[in-house]
Amino acid sequence: LSEDTIEFTLEADNSIKEVVMYNTHESKYKVKISKQDITTKQELAGATLVLKDAKGNEIDRWVSTNTPHYLELEKGEYVLTEIQAPSGYDLSYEVIKFTVGDNSEIETAIVMYNSKTPDTADKNMIFLLSIMGIAISGTLFAIYKLKHKVRIK
């Protein structure tokens, strides 16, 4: 939509001189970037995201909220990365490359996901089970060796 105002004069004979209004081509495209939990597909707050252009220039940096982040970008190639995960989630090493251009939808939607970090209790249980597995394996090996020695004699 042109924001220009054009004034014209209505002549005494009710004629109007030619009036011309120009519109420019939209040079920016709306992009929606969503940061979501990989399981629930719900928006995640607290991730620090960085958007760079194809030359590596930082275009935007923000902390995600409970709603998607909207940008207006010129046509070109872009790269989205996460540099800090939300609390309770693993850092996403995903690198999302996308192109904005004349063939873009009216709105381009980009989604990046995070997985929850296992609870400390889960980590402790995994560690305990690992230790128990090593202990049981060692015991079974010792029993085998003892039995093996008895058979030889």
Q: Order of helices and strands, N to C?
A: EEEEEEEH
Distance between the termini: 98 Å
Proportion in helices: 10-25%
- Gross morphology: rod-shaped
Low-confidence stretches: none
Multimerization status: single chain
Structural class: alpha+beta
Please summarize the sheet with the most strands: 4 strands, antiparallel
Question: What percentage of the residues does DSSP assign to strands (E)?
Answer: 25-35%
Radius of gyration from CA coordinates: 31 Å
Number of strands: 7
Count of individual helical segments: 1
Average of pLDDT: 83
Q: Largest sheet, order of strands side by side?
A: 3-2-5-6
Question: Can you walk through the features of this model?
Answer:
A hairpin with a 4-residue loop joins strand 2 and strand 3 (58-63). The relative contact order is 0.16. The chain is 22% helix and 33% strand. It is of the alpha+beta class. The chain contains 1 helix and 7 strands.
